[in-house]
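Report of the visiting student (M.T.), summer placement. My assignment was to run the structure pipeline on a short list of targets and document each run. The first record concerns Protein TIC110, chloroplastic.
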Amino acid sequence: MHEDIYRQKLQQFVADGELSKDETEALMAFQVRLCIPQETVDAAHTDICGQLFEKVVKEAILSVDGYNADRREAVRKAAQSLNLKKEAAMTIFSKAVRKLFLNYIQKAKAAGNRIEQAKELKKLISFNTVVVSELLADIKGELTTAEPATSSATSEPETTESEGEDEDYEWESLETLKKTRPDKELKEKLGKSSQKEISLKDDLPLRDRAELYQTYLMFCITGETTNVSFGTAISSKKDDSEYLMLKQLGHILGLTAKEAQDVHIKLAEKAFVQQAEVVLADGKLTESKADQLATIQKQVGLPSEHAQKIIKSITTTKLSSAIEASISRGQIGIQQVRGLKDANFELDSLISEPLRETIYKKCAEEIFSSGTGEFDEEEVYVKMPADLIISAEKARSIVQDIAKVRLENALVQAVALLRQKKRDGVISSLNDLLACDAAVPASKPLSWPTPRELDDLYCVYMKSIPKQDKLSRLQYLLDISAEKAEDLRDAATAGTLPQTGQEEEELAF
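After the run finished, the structure tokens were exported:
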């Protein structure tokens, strides 16, 4: 109840838009008499006096006559006579200003093209410099007179203006970034500086603020275009003062020096990539092209190492496309891959994992169809997966899947070639069968409906004078007993080995 009484009294006193010294003293006596806490009094003043102050501020900001002497006097008077706390006055002012800032931003986003967007943003920058900065100076000046105590809220932004500005000297070569740091002569020419305390940092996400900053940066680079006859356009050159306005826009948007720098870097890299793509259209980097790219790099201001990364990325992408086409045609094998690796190419970025697995499968299939009967476990399970950046488990799984299928197929093929009386083909197929068995050893002999044909296969292979371990393994796979194998070997030694179907036919002829 006491609070309501105090608020009514305060409203009566500020009905004329100000609090006199006598009225202020009367309110203090009233507070003591009613035992009203100071927090309650402060809240009442912020609410009631704040509404009056907000009204004066809005009238000053939105005045069609601009922020003239009369408006300035009204703001000063309100700031001094309403006896508002500094924090409360700054909060009210900031809220009103940010609302108007957002109106400009909405108009910019709704503009039809980049030039119109930049024009709306330019109005925002001018509004901040001409109106907001002067209003803030007046409010702070009057408040400082009425309330001598200093506040870090008003001094902090001054110290943070250059905070992090030169964090990354690597990017000092960026021309657009250097222009946002004008020399003394340009600053004096432009005259007024703009406030940095009130921003849209907490009102818009970083992505939106960075896009708005980039829009005006593009306007600074390209200037304003004017359409003329026959569908052509003329671009008017902008001076470096536009870049100072760009920096002021960065403050309004609440961008840190690092965040603004990132926009400059992104745009410079994009410009370099677009031109480098044209120069390296065929994917070949010649000496003349390198000189051309070096000139472009200096024009956009990119550090050399970053330009080289982009060039390598483009050439790698072009090479990658050519390699993928060659892989699909079966022209790339493990030897070509090792050549790329020796040339220091990053294989995992040059060839996708599925294509690397395709190369590995192709190599495994070649081993199981080479007709040599050799299977080098270290080469297949260790070296090749390492060169192709494939896990050892994945590689073993691929090889074993292929070997299981090829094992049965090799026997069928060997019998088919036996029936066609192609002795060399039979030996090659049996060697492939042994290679598959080396990769995935069979747990039991292979089955075949005609045992005589298996005997013939064994005889043909034995006549090729193979290594003893291969002949012994083939004996097991073809399910030939030790006794029969011994008889066949003795017969071969005595020259009385039974004739195969092909040899019998040749003798009859």
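The chain has a mean pLDDT of 78. Residues 334 and 359 are 7 Å apart (CA to CA). I thank the supervising group for their guidance throughout the placement.
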